[in-house]
Amino acid sequence: MFQGVFTALVTPFNDDKSINEEDLKKLVDFNIENGVAGIVPMGTTGESPTLNHEEHVHVIEIVCKHVNKRVPVIAGTGSNSTREALFMTSRAKDLKADASLQVAPYYNKPTQEGFYRHFKTIADEVDLPMIIYNIPGRTGKNIETDTIVRLAEHPNIVGVKEASGSLPQMMDVIDRTPDDFIVLSGDDNLTLPLMAAGGKGVISVASNIIPDRMSAMVKAGLNGNFEEMRKLHYELLPFFKVEFIETNPIPIKTALAMKGMVREVFRLPMCEMSGENKKKLKTVLKELRII
Prior knowledge:
Blueprint: E1 4-8, H1 21-33, E2 38-40, H2 53-67, E3 74-76, H3 82-94, E4 99-103, H4 112-125, E5 130-134, H5 136-139, H6 145-151, E6 157-162, H7 167-176, E7 182-185, H8 191-196, E8 201-204, H9 211-222, H10 226-242, H11 250-258, H12 275-287
Parallel strand pairs: 1-2, 1-8, 3-4, 4-5, 5-6, 6-7
Helix pairs in contact: 1-2, 3-4, 4-6, 6-7, 9-10, 11-12
């Protein structure tokens, strides 16, 4: 169920910064029609830190209802408070999400035992498949391989989104966890090497706007055709670089706005791209025929 390209969905806003439900639904349809394996609302790319709990749940509800089981929905319900993550994950289950994405608790920097107890508590109390999200560059603390290995023993903990940036760590996780434990890339530009090492896909930012091309690249890898995957990877590499020229999700949302799919509206502290970086982004989008 959790192999392939899963789009870390942006949250479109209206000019008054309210949630644009119609653009959200259109973006879901665009992704499904272009071959993604699943949808991930309310991750970092969805600007989740700037939405309140009611809005957060509402976005998950809209996505789950509109997807209508066409593909799996992995709802972002993580928090640096275990109680809050429990509440959000319970709501996601009620709304018929297929799994939850649980970011490593951020800022308070738990010990490895704290990480273990946090994820295990959620997995124990909410009977819903869980994918752990390791992104130390944002959270301030790495989930070490030993901890992932312990957590992989839990029947509800089915995989990890790996954005540590460390290929040796990713390979260690793949090597030391059961064959059915899924390791997904958290970085578009590391999808190729991770899948060559045994990973099963990517939770992608790029697929918001190029779902067909990302799906083709990852499908090649799943089929063992790494020559084709490598070719597609290098074709898209300029975009993988420019989509993080400023803090995610600023560039990808700006790119979608250039394509006329969403408004270029953010909630503070996210804001519009600088003029120079926007020119660089537009140049790459044109060169790759994305716009």
